[in-house]
Amino acid sequence: MQNHQPEFMKKTIAIAAFCTLTLSCTGNSPLNGGRANGGDTTSVAPERHLSLLIAGDLMQHEPQIKAARRADGSYNYDECFSRVKNEIERADVAIANFEVTLGGPPYRGYPQFSAPDEYLNACLKAGFDIMLTANNHCLDSYQRGLERTIHVMDSLHVPHLGTYVNPQERQRQYPFLLEQNGIRVVLLNFTYGTNGLKVKEPNVVNYMDTTEIARDIVKARTTMNPDVIIAIPHWGIEYQTLPSKEQRLIAQWLLDHGVDHVIGGHPHVAQPLELLNGGRNLVAYSLGNFISNQSKPNTYGGYMVRMEFTKNDSTTVLSHSGYSIYWVSRPADTGNRHNYRVLPIDEPDSALTPTERTKRNTIRSAMRQLFEKNNKGGIKEYIFK
After folding, report:
1. What is the CA radius of gyration of the chain?
2. pLDDT tens digits for the chain (385 residues)?
3. Distance of CA 321 to the CA centre of its chain
4. Phi, psi (5° rounding) for residue 369?
5. Which residues contact 90 (CB under 8 A, 6 or more apart)?
6. What is the rounded CA–CA span in Å between residue 297 and residue 300?
7. Measuring CA to CA, how many Å separate 8 from each of 127, 128, 256, 359?
8. What are the b/e assignments for 351-360, b being 16+ CB within 10 Å?
């Protein structure tokens, strides 16, 4: 790949020390109708706003790879994200868990993923800005895959965090500092494990080591002057719709040690959300899959979290938060479509086949019942079209 920034990327990106990410203001949050510019700028700093969207697992099972393959040997995933692209792009910054490697051919799915480079291109074209790489599949293509994934992302100027070529790169790039609209957000990303595969020196994977995480939080607080710290752990028990005791303990430990919000993933199903401490802290235990070929109950859907931060002078608060539910339609569900599609949970019946309507209704009912019973703090679902 040539070392240039793709034309389809919607925001201007620059990387500086500590992997500071600065993006131009192009989006408007749907949670509050856009930004406020308030105040007399000669005497009072203007009110500032930043909207973040965080999504779950970007996966590539073998049937997805085959569905995206074209006659000329290339791969096209545009249809996968066409119905959610506008929603992703409305956020100032959109983040997702890139749960495959770009290990090069031969491409393969479970249990050791290696996706075509075109898949990353499609994720960027869909509007995602930052990729998380600390997950249990980051070593699926071994050292070559870890390093090649980083190389491809770097060649496209894609900000990423969680895995590193060597300790020096981790020291330089992590914790990850995002700065936009005058608001500074530190992101932390780490995984419970890597499926028994061992990282080879000098490569580094961020593991869920509380001693190391505590040092990272101290580094962020003392050297980066963050307004917000968000931890995005890869944790939990697969296919369990309620968080484990360990997830709850680690979430509380993170909050106690200076993290403001915790947005988790890995179980491949959605788990509840909690607004704690009067709405100051958000914990989402698992966002579920964003796109995959999994068919176990609750695996073919998930939710995106939107967070709106407002800064007045030196005080930054989580002024709005919400979640939106989506689900995945497969080619077999339609009989006439070539690719997988991520669809809004309230996609009109007229646009769906009978099979799609049945699957949509099943997961919509299950997820809404789960959240109605287990969410805490009053966080609400919002609908996008």
Report:
1. 20
2. 333 334 444 454 333 334 455 553 333 333 333 333 344 445 567 899 999 999 999 999 999 999 999 999 999 999 999 999 999 999 999 999 999 999 999 999 999 999 999 999 999 999 999 999 999 999 999 999 999 999 999 999 999 999 999 999 999 999 999 999 999 999 999 999 999 999 999 999 999 999 999 999 999 999 999 999 999 999 999 999 999 999 999 999 999 999 999 999 999 999 999 999 999 999 999 999 999 999 999 999 999 999 999 999 889 999 999 999 999 999 999 987 889 999 999 999 999 999 999 999 999 999 999 999 999 999 999 999 8
3. 16
4. -65, -40
5. 27, 28, 29, 30, 51, 53
6. 8
7. 9, 11, 40, 32
8. ebeeebbebb
CA distance linking residue 218 with residue 383, whole number of Å: 38
Residue with tokens 């500086």: 16
Do residues 107 and 65 make contact, with C-beta atoms less than 8 angstroms apart? yes
Tokens of 366: 């299950």
Residue 61 and residue 102 in contact, taking contact as beta carbons nearer than 8 Å? no
- Rounded to whole angstroms, how far apart are CA atoms 247 and 236? 6
CA distances for 66 relative to 108, 120, 293, angstroms: 10, 16, 12
Six token digits for residue 75: 């791969």
